[in-house]
Design goal:
With 331 residues, this protein is α/β, with parallel strands linked by helices. The structure holds glyoxylic acid.
């Protein structure tokens, strides 16, 4: 019997491509070309499965051009690149990579918070530019992490990891806001108190965003929310571009309405709002929160495992939808 055909949409670890070749007839993309939606659709026209990396849009138009497609395995925990309803209606399974990146991403969220509150990149630029000629009492004075109030919006696995780091590692008071409240046991485990969004914005010294991107979470933080925050507060976005109104944030940073921001994700990335590039009090990183070698390998292997388990008939390991028909036969 011929092997199922799969497309790997971006360059990934070569040994994991080799692993997939043992199970599938693979078309990969070792040059890491960014295909347009039409180029992606053309390559998916004869494929049974796809390995995506979170930035390839899978919608009704693409699905109509890919009649054999039965599964798309995203190498990311977020899957806002999927039109889940369209995939479910077309009988296409979607999968993501939860759990394997939780602690790594929580580490990064905390690192970005520390770098932002303690003005690390701003002061490094100053030093590298040769401006450090004398010490002064208020040079790059930032805000404290220990003992301060940490507000987390989005209390899934990564948010909980950040809460534990804050509460137990740094003695922070942790408040959170989420669509649904955690169980009392989980709240105790994270030492976190549920509050309304407005109270969180008003009282937190550091606000960390870890919500999935949906139409409802678009611009969770805009001009109105920034105005509610303390002028000494920091804002950290490791969730998704579009959760923050980047233009409004640039204005708030420039006018000192909040102290600083740390951003790993951007609206329209890899483009970054030009005003964010010129304000000093923002730390900018290129969507690397899960980027350690072991974690990126675990994510790629989990996406591969999803494809293998699905076509073996064992079912997907980490599904994001439940299409009525998850048959491996051609659609
Ligand atoms: C990264 O942003 C992910 O969703 O895994």
């Amino acid at each position: 019997m011929s092997k199922p055909r799969i497309l790997i949409a971006r360059a990934i670890f070569p040994d994991i491509v080799d692993r997939l070749r043992q199970h599938f007839d693979v078309q990969d993309n070792p040059e890491d070309v960014i295909w347009s939606p039409a180029e992606l659709a053309e390559r998916l026209a004869d494929k049974d499965g796809a390995f995506t990396t979170g930035s390839q849009r899978i919608d009704a138009t693409l699905l109509a051009a890919a009649p054999r497609l039965k599964i798309v395995a995203n190498m990311a925990v977020g899957y806002n690149n999927f039109d889940v309803d369209a995939m479910t209606a077309a009988g296409v399974q979607g999968t993501n990579t939860p759990d394997v990146l939780t602690e790594t991403t929580a580490d990064f969220g905390f690192a970005l918070l520390m770098a932002t509150a303690r003005r690390m990149t701003e002061s490094e630029h100053y030093l590298r530019a040769g401006n450090w000629t004398k010490w002064s009492y208020d040079m790059f004075a930032g805000s404290d992490i220990h003992g301060s109030t940490l507000g987390i919006i989005g209390m899934g696995r990564i948010g909980q990891g950040i809460a534990r780091r804050g509460a137990f590692g740094f003695g922070m008071k942790v408040v959170y806001h989420n669509r649904s409240r955690l169980s009392p046991a989980l709240e105790a485990e994270c030492k976190a108190t549920y509050v309304g969004k407005e109270e969180l914005l008003r009282t937190a010294d550091h606000v960390v965003l870890v919500v999935p991107y949906t139409a409802a979470s678009h611009h969770t933080i805009g001009a109105a929310e920034l105005a509610q925050m303390k002028p000494t507060a920091t804002l950290i976005n490791i969730a998704r571009g579009g959760i923050v109104d980047d233009a409004a944030l640039a204005v708030a940073l420039r006018e000192g309405r909040i102290a600083a921001a740390g951003l790993d994700v951007f609206e329209g990335e890899p483009r970054v709002h030009p005003d964010l590039l010129t304000v000093p009090n923002v730390v900018l990183t290129p969507h690397i929160a899960s980027a350690t070698v072991p974690t990126r390998r675990a994510m790629a292997n989990l996406a591969a495992d999803n494809l293998i388990a699905f076509f073996d008939g064992r079912g997907p390991l980490t599904p994001v939808n439940q299409p009525v028909s998850t048959t491996t036969a051609p659609r």
